[in-house]
Write a structure and sequence with these properties.
The protein has 22 helices and 28 strands. The protein is elongated.
């Protein structure tokens, strides 16, 4: 190795040796300069640290509080005054010594100026100086720096490996405000904790409960180290509520990787004091969590709204956190507002975001410009059922957040409820809803519709325009007329046809379809409901066959009326369904005409709907005999099937009017339709030329006001007005047909008033009350009579 070039340079006395010596000298000089700079910086920092120690000791002596609490007081005063802690400490020390000049720190070029000595203050400052963490946190510029100092100077020496500070968000969710010692993936996974996740920190904030590592109350929920337990023992942790001005605003959490340490009483007091100090930094504008005042704005809004905070990843917005919802906001899937606060928008509404809800939010956030009145067709999914909704969306930037509001694009009262309740129709075996957007080709089928078509649930949906290819050839003209009426003339239409299955079987099906128009009057979507009426059709076929067999018989009329009476008795139940869960009690009566040839189309219905709502209905089809009875069957079944869509009584009568117009012979009828909502105690009702219901209460009888509404089957496009009443417990609602009170030559109102006064109060026995009404009835027309009485329990 002696022949290498380095030895050669030395051996020949070249410049290598001198260059090496001068290089070493330069490195040594640089090291000396660094040490001098470090020393100068240490001297510069010593002055403020000494001032903070002295001021803390003086406050502890004057206020008779521990040094940790004195440090909290000093930090709070500095933040209130808007000055650094060191500056306020200099003012406190200077005023106590009646000095005109503040102590100034020494710089690299000059000696430091020491404050005047105060022996009493210095003796009081000795315990404060021992609390290095309190001094460091008090002088920290922000919460992350304070948490880092807490881990390094207090928690770390006690064996802890991480410190986390949680901040309570409006609505009860927790945000990770600052942390030290956690891995990046742990901090990211626990950046938000919904109020429904029962972590120790959540309990500390909501209940004010302290959790110490050596008392056996700490759990493992929350950010947990890589080794969560030792020997099967849960990872110990300290959790203290952070209280500011009497309000729990967050929690301090300290995590240990191994067995629980045994903390002494002084350590308990010191950690509590440090938690108090952290609470003063939690409201700092420099802290990650924003002030609550933006979220509090939502409490004053009268419209449904959400406050969203963007979630960033690699500089891009990938999601939004729901910070708060306004009081009028109702989740489309029926979940409580408390379950939404602090949750991810993508997790709460995944299908809605995939079908168009997320894009306008991202655009509004990127541009910073508000968007208002945008019409969206989105889908909410609940329990495997798709609920399509057309909404109007408004988005406004609100600082770095978004203020979002959406409302169903409803053209009529009750349509928003209908959209929210469409998925309930799938629970009935013979009813299924659908919605189709011809412009995009997107078709949404309700649960059970594929089965009605005899197709696999995974098979593609059948467009309305292709429906004629799936029906019996004899029914194709009727289906084409329906499609033309909806898509070209923009009119609600219905049809009955034989739907052919791939295996060759046929099902008689009724479909009601309505168009959805945009603001320019163009077709935007079509929606409707299918009803399997095979059983009803078989009844009609049997009825028709019986009429045909009796056509040549002398007893044709008598037997036909007997058949109508049997049909009516078979269709109308002798007793209402159980209503215990709805808060109602009901009784019904049906009295056929004394003369069999006078048997008419009177009918009633009591039906419990999804959501414990109750449908009450009575009606009277014009005419007598089999024709009236079959018309009664059609209208009663149509109302029962359509009621599950969630539509209001006025809308149900509009659809029933369409059915009456399409029935053979163009049926005309009167009807009264009542919807009782036990949740709000509200009764909504509408009528089609029928007598008004009567509300019987402690103060007497009241005939409900008459909303506008013509006979079913009278006009092509009839509109039925709705009215609302709010009965109280003990009230009785009475519905009836005109066979109870109709007298030749007398006003109906006079007969009603005479009967109600004669019958007296209903009492507790509704069955006896209805029998009394039938006994006292002044009617002389010998017509059918239906009675329905419902008591509000």
């Amino acid at each position: 190795m002696t022949g290498g070039p380095w030895h050669g340079d030395r051996r020949h006395g070249g410049a290598g040796e001198g260059d090496s010596a001068s290089g070493s000298a330069r490195l040594l000089a640089a090291a000396v300069r660094r040490l001098q700079d470090d020393a100068a910086r240490a001297r510069a920092e010593e002055g403020p640290r000494t001032l903070v120690d002295l001021a803390t000791g003086m406050l502890a002596e004057r206020l008779a509080v521990p040094p940790g609490e004195a440090a909290v007081r000093l930090a709070g005063l500095a933040r209130t005054a808007g000055v650094p802690v060191a500056t306020l400490a200099a003012v406190i020390v200077g005023r106590q010594e009646d000095r005109e000049e503040l102590p100034t720190p020494s710089g690299p070029s000059g000696p430091s100026v020491q404050p005047a000595r105060n022996p009493a203050a210095e003796r009081a400052a000795e315990p404060a100086a021992a609390s290095v963490a309190a001094r460091a946190i008090a002088a920290a510029p922000d919460l992350p720096a304070a948490v880092d100092a807490l881990l390094r100077q207090i928690a770390g020496p006690l064996g802890a490996h991480a410190v986390v500070v949680w901040q309570r968000l409006p609505g009860g969710a927790l945000a990770l405000a600052a942390q030290a010692g956690l891995r990046a993936d742990e901090a990211g996974a626990w950046s938000r904790v919904p109020p429904t996740v029962a972590t120790p920190a959540q309990r500390a904030v909501s209940e004010g409960v302290e959790c110490w590592p050596d008392d056996g109350t700490a759990g493992t929920t929350g950010p947990v180290p890589a080794v969560p337990s030792v020997g099967g023992v849960d990872a110990p942790r300290l959790v203290l509520p952070l209280v500011d001005d009497g309000r729990r605003r967050g929690a301090l959490e300290v995590l240990w990787p191994g067995p629980a340490p045994v903390l002494t009483p002084p350590q308990h007091r010191r950690l509590r004091a440090l938690a108090d100090l952290c609470s003063t930094l939690l409201g700092d504008p420099g802290a990650p969590a924003e002030p609550d005042r933006q979220a509090d704005v939502l409490d004053g809004l009268l419209t449904p709204a959400l406050l969203l905070e963007p979630v960033l990843r690699d500089g891009r917005v990938v999601d939004f956190t729901i910070l708060r919802t306004s009081p009028p906001f109702r989740d489309p899937l029926g979940r409580p507002r408390s379950g939404l606060d602090g949750a991810s928008l993508l997790e709460v509404y995944p299908v809605a975001c995939a079908t168009g809800l997320l894009e306008p939010l991202l655009r509004a956030h990127a541009s910073g410009e508000p968007r208002s009145g945008e019409r969206l067709h989105v889908v909410f999914r609940s329990g495997g059922t798709d609920v399509p909704v057309t909404v109007r969306l408004a988005v406004a930037p609100f600082g770095r957040r978004l203020l979002v509001t959406w409302q169903p694009a409803a053209d009529r009262p009750g349509e928003s409820d209908q959209a929210a309740m469409q998925h309930q129709a799938q629970r009935l075996a013979r009813v299924a809803g659908f919605q189709e957007h011809p412009g995009t080709g997107r078709i949404l089928w309700g649960e059970g519709l594929a089965e009605l078509y005899g197709r696999s649930p995974h098979a593609p949906a059948v467009p309305l325009a292709d429906l004629a290819g799936h029906v019996h050839p004899d029914d194709e003209p009727a289906v084409r007329r329906l499609v033309d009426a909806v898509e070209r003339r923009h009119r609600t239409s219905s049809a009955v046809f034989r739907l052919r299955h791939p295996d060759g079987t046929e099902h008689y099906t009724r479909v009601v379809v309505e168009p959805v128009l945009d603001e320019d009057g163009r077709l935007d979507a079509v929606r409707g409901a299918y009803l399997d009426v095979s059983a009803q059709h078989r009844t009609e076929i049997a009825l028709g066959a019986t009429r045909q067999r009796l056509a040549d018989s002398e007893q044709e009329t008598v037997e036909s009326e007997q058949l109508a009476l049997r049909l009516q008795r078979a269709i109308l139940p002798s007793a209402p369904p159980p209503l215990d869960t709805t808060g109602l009690r009901a009784a019904v009566r049906y009295r056929p005409a004394a003369k069999r040839e006078r048997v008419g189309g009177d009918w009633y219905d009591v039906l419990v709907l999804p959501g414990k709502r109750v449908l009450l209905a009575v009606g009277d089809v014009a005419g007598h005999g089999v024709g009236a009875a079959t018309g009664m069957v059609a209208l009663r079944h149509a109302l029962r099937g359509l009621a599950v869509t969630g539509a209001g009584p006025g809308r149900l009568l509009e659809w029933a009017n369409t059915v009456a117009l399409r029935e053979p012979g163009q049926v005309t009828a009167t009807a009264a339709c009542v919807l009782f909502d036990p949740a709000g105690g509200e009764v909504r009702w509408a009528r089609a030329g029928h007598l008004p219901p009567i509300l019987l209460g402690p103060s007497g009888a009241e005939v409900l006001p008459l909303p506008h509404g013509v006979l079913l089957g009278a006009l092509e496009e009839a509109v039925y007005e709705e009215r609302t009443v709010q009965p109280v417990a003990g009230d009785v609602l009475l519905l009836y047909t005109d066979g109870l009170v109709e007298r030749r030559g007398h006003p109906t109102e006079e007969s009603v008033d005479q009967l109600i006064r004669a019958a007296g109060p209903p009492g507790h026995d509704l069955e006896r009350y209805l029998d009394r009404l039938l006994e006292l009835s002044p009617a002389d027309t010998d017509d059918d009579t239906c009675l329905v009485a419902v008591r509000i329990e």
